[in-house]
Amino acid sequence: MFRGFYTVATGMIAQQRKTEMLTNNLSNVNTPGFKADQSSMRAFPDMLLSSLGESKTPVKNGSNIPQLSTVGALNTGVYMQETMPLYTQGDIRETALATDFALLEGAMPVNEETGLPGAVFFMLENPDGENRLTRNGNFALDGEGFLTTAGGHYVLDQEGSRIELRNEDFTLQEDGQILVNGQQAARLGVAYVDDPLVLVKEGEDLLRAPEGTVLQNAYTQADAAFTLQQGSLEQSNVDSARTMTDLMTAYRSFEANQKVLQAYDRSLEKTVNEVGRVN
């Protein structure tokens, strides 16, 4: 009886976490550059149940040794093992703003270990001087003329320095060159990550590489095909229709587990109050 409680409870917890993940995806459907999360469900290891004493084996001294007889396997529930961002290209929307940049990915090298393609990201510097990555190209110029994100993170060039432009009278070329009055002012920093699944989401559409990771310059990756587009933004890659369907499925699964839990509770109540009653 109690094993059933635990199994149903794990199913409810797993579906609750999946619902939270899908809700977060939906809330960011209009966030530029946002990458939808996916979940991986796993079952706990099955237990093989056996009973002791149903049959006995006689021995020389006249006593009997109880034998084990197999009852069967018991599943102990499920859990959400991990969440993984889906690093596919989002739709491109024109904004006509000079400080809006979009990364357009082409064919990317495939990581031999994961079997998944790499990805490119804008390079940023947070207020603590640490490097961060993003696909959200919704930038602006601060009061000192530096190119920054909405959260105040500095946009870096390919040398890892802050980009100073003074005003919005500049042009971003497809190869990342930023021209002011026809002269090259900087080259937008773009990092290549061969295994983007190792990146950690931090909020504000920021990604953090594991400590000790050396970010590769995307411009030096011969097999990484991408271009930059000024006056455009990459939209979220969340499929709102599919996410809503998955959300309803997770909710129904939670409800089904809840009804099973209630049935267990009624059975236990009946056992305690009626079967065990002394007349």
UniProtKB/TrEMBL annotation:
Domain Flagellar basal-body/hook protein C-terminal: 229-273
Domain Flagellar basal body rod protein N-terminal per the UniProt entry, residue ranges: 5-35
Key words, A-Z: Bacterial flagellum, Cell projection, Cilium, Flagellum
GO cellular component, one term: bacterial-type flagellum basal body
GO biological process: bacterial-type flagellum-dependent swarming motility
Keyword Phosphoprotein: no
Record flagged with keyword Transcription regulation: no
Superkingdom of this protein's organism: Bacteria
InterPro entries assigned to the protein according to its UniProt record, in alphabetical order: Flag_bb_rod_N, Flagellar_basal_body_rod_CS, Flagellar_FlgE/F/G, Flg_bb/hook_C_dom, FlgE/F/G-like, LlgE_F_G-like_D1
Residue ranges constituting the Flagellar hook protein FlgE/F/G-like D1 domain according to the UniProt record: 118-179
Transmembrane regions listed in the UniProt entry: none
PROSITE patterns: FLAGELLA_BB_ROD (PS00588)
Primary location group: other
Location within or outside the cell: Bacterial flagellum basal body
Family: Belongs to the flagella basal body rod proteins family.
Name by which UniProt lists this protein: Flagellar biosynthesis protein FlgC
Organism: Jeotgalibacillus proteolyticus
Organism ancestry: Bacteria, Bacillati, Bacillota, Bacilli, Bacillales
